[in-house]
Amino acid sequence: MNGNVVVMKSSNCDAYEEMISDKSYTDDLFIHLLGKHRRCLMEHECKEILESIGVKTTGIQIALSEEDTVKISENIGYPVVMKIASPDVVHKSDLGGVKLNVQNDQEAGKAYRELVETFKNKEIAGVSVQKMADPGIEVIIGVTRDPNYGHVLMFGLGGVFVEILKDVTFRILPITEDDAADMIEEIKGGPLLTGYRGHSADIAALKELLLKISELVVQHPEISELDLNPVFLYPRGYVVVDARIFVDSVPQKQTTDHLPMKEDLHKLFYPDSI
Ligand code: ADP
Ligand code: MG
Which single residue of 131, 142, 179, 194 could bond 154 by disulfide (Cβ 3.0 to 4.6 Å)? Predict the structure, then answer.
């Protein structure tokens, strides 16, 4: 596979199915991006990588026209979500780049036009059209790469829990199955996941997701940052709603003679907060 690794996914792309089953796809994509000095993967590119390792996402289809948008939306079934796909736009909703709950062909066409108009001064790769996920318990999974400790995994409840309560936990990668179970149990909001007033999440699926992310990053040390935010958890299964990955050439690992304190790891993700 060469040269065409960043092809846009459009509605009927059989070659694409072959592409994601190719194990070297992620390697090729990273080499390509590093060669082009692009560091941040777009959401659909991240989700392509995730889907290729069996992680469930809200979808990776890219529309290149209004007509395309309607076709893809009808295929998925309304309501859908539409988002700008641009290498220049990292925080999509801050800039008006996310249209939720698009209900019909007319709204889909209008949303396409609005997104293209809003971002007319940016490089636009297309418009991502995806399934509108059912509400679930929101969690976040993050990875950052520290020169001393290597890759560090963060897990926590999303929304207000992470922003205000900082209810998150960390492990140096790779993690074991026991680590994944401990991470889920040790956050203060853990009971929300394991069963509280009828809310509960599929713990087995969540553990598997954490392990898959650990494995992905261990196999691809060029990942300097990874952010699944949010992931919706359900009583059965989960879905990754948004994903971001940054890549960089792998630095020489520095040695350290002490194990990190929790505060040290926290600082890696929230440099200004402590
Ligand atoms: P941003 O780049 O701003 O983080 P997101 O893709 O996370 O953009 O979208 C912002 C918010 O919109 C998400 O936190 C989530 O609440 C909601 N959202 C995004 N995509 C979907 C989807 N496919 N289904 C349901 N809700 C979604
Ligand atoms: Mg997000």
Answer: 142
For residue 258, the one-letter residue type is H
Q: How far is the CA of 2 from the centre of ligand 2 (A)?
A: 31
Helix, strand, or coil here: 161? helix
If one residue of 99, 239, 242 were mutated to test the ligand 1 pocket, choosing by the most ligand atoms within 8 A of its CB, it would be 242
Q: Is 40 in the pocket of ligand 1 (CB under 6 A)?
A: no
Within a 13 Å sphere around the CA of 234, how many CA atoms are in the beta-carbon half?
10
Question: Residue 7's pLDDT is what?
Answer: 35
pLDDT of residue 118: 98
SS3 120: coil
For 165-175, write each residue's pLDDT tens digit.
788 999 999 99
**SS3 assignment, position 209:** helix
- Give whole-number Cα distances, 222 to 32, 148, 175, in Å: 12, 16, 18
Please calculate the CA angle 160-156-229 and round it to the nearest 5 degrees.
Answer: 75
Angle, helices 14-21 vs 43-52, to 10°: value is: 60
Q: What is the pLDDT of residues 64-93, one digit of tens each?
A: 999 999 999 999 999 999 999 999 999 999
